[in-house]
Amino acid sequence: MKYLELIVNSMSNGIIAVDKNLKTILVNPFACTILGITPDQHILGISIQKILNDEGIFNLLEKSIFEDCDFLEEVAIDNESKILSISINPIKSDSEIIGAVLFIQDITKMRNIEKIGQEFVSNVSHELKTPLTSIRGFIETLKSGAINDHAVAYKFLDIIDIEAERLFFLINDILALSEIETMKQDANISSIVLEEIINDCITVLQGQADKKKISIQYDIEPDLRIKLSKHKLMQLVLNLMDNSIKYSPDCSWIRIKAQKSGDYIIMSFKDSGIGIPKEHHTRIFERFYRVDKSRSRSLGGTGLGLSIVKHIVDIYKGTITLNSVVGKGTEFIITFPIL
Questions:
Q1: Nearest to 311 by CA among 202, 176, 194, 198
Q2: Which listed site, 7, 122, 133, 319, has its alpha carbon 20 to 30 Å from 58?
Q3: Would you tell me the crossing angle of helices 305-315 and 150-181 to the nearest 10 degrees?
């Protein structure tokens, strides 16, 4: 009996058993935690209704006993912040019902993951549909006679090229995010000289910065090395720098710093751009989340860059924080533990 009690108390699912009078005969710790029941010495032998805060669950227990019914339901509790899978079965001795047993599984995380997946599919469909609709529209116009007007035809072809490029970058980002999200840890790490990566990324984006006369400055601790995947680190740096360039005005600046501090390497990416309003700070790393949707699309953003950055930081057990003031600029600070 002692082993049975230990097993029941160690379960990560909730179990509540009541007799035919709906008085508790068993409540394990997980059930107490998930349902907000105080696990004191008075919990057994009293009506379940007195300790259960959810009337719906009580009604199902009652119905299970008096109508000899099994139930499998999903119940939202705590202002719908938690979603529980509830399984209720009568307890029988021969043909007589002597009580009911309630099994509880917290499926909040699973349902949230499903919701995120559904939103992701919906967002991807929308993001793909917009440029494809534009491309098909201009192709149809060209086929209807506009191709004979060279000036108009070249203008439409330029737009088609822009939309095709937008699709290319979107698909690349989706594939990159999919790869990173399924990665638990990265086996392809090596010791990298951080300054070399920063220089390579600046070389890639220098032309984009020059068009807006944006100055890129950096201050990297000499010979500072970091153990990461070179490819992932470049993805992270390029995404942050690209964002800074896109959302900074002409003749502004971007500053990159990196230094060792104790057992950590701290990197900072700061710009003098438009800034991010405070109310968006908690959601900025969500997939496809944009502060200004029309502006982001006009600048060629996919809405996935910062999500990719956050996932890369998580892979290497790092942290990322955001400091931003509207009209004054934005700073992302990334801290990686030294491996």
A1: 176
A2: 7
A3: 20
Report the largest interatomic distance among the alpha carbons of the chain, rounded to a whole angstrom: 89
The Cα–Cα gap between 167 and 158 comes to: 14
Q: Verify that 79 and 134 share a domain, yes or no.
A: no
How many other CB atoms sit within 10 Å of the CB of residue 145? 10
Is-contact 266 259, C-beta < 8 A?
yes
**Rounded to whole angstroms, how far apart are CA atoms 60 and 13?**
18
pLDDT at 216: 92
Question: Do residues 164 and 206 both lie within one domain?
Answer: no
Supply the pLDDT for residue 6: 80
- Containing domain of residue 322, as a range? 185-339
Residues 84 and 62: beta-carbon distance below 8 Å:
no
Out of 139, 161, 182, a domain closes at: 182
Q: How many domains does the chain have?
A: 3
Distance between CA atoms of 225 and 196, rounded to whole angstroms? 10
Between helix 108-143 and helix 150-181 the angle, nearest 10°, is 160
pLDDT score at 258: 93
For residue 1, give every residue at least 6 positions away whose Cβ sits within 8 Å of its Cβ, in sequence order, or none.
none
CATH number for the domain harbouring residue 334: 3.30.565.10
Mean per-residue pLDDT, 117-129 = 74
Q: State whether 139 and 149 are in the same domain.
A: yes
Strands 96-106 and 71-77: unpaired
Q: Which of 59, 90, 106 is the last residue of a domain?
A: 106
DSSP 3-state of 220: strand
What tens digit of pLDDT does each residue of 9-25 get? Answer: 778 888 989 898 888 88
Going by their DSSP bridges, the two strands 71-77 and 82-93 should be labelled as antiparallel
Helices first, then strands: H and E counts in the chain: 10, 12
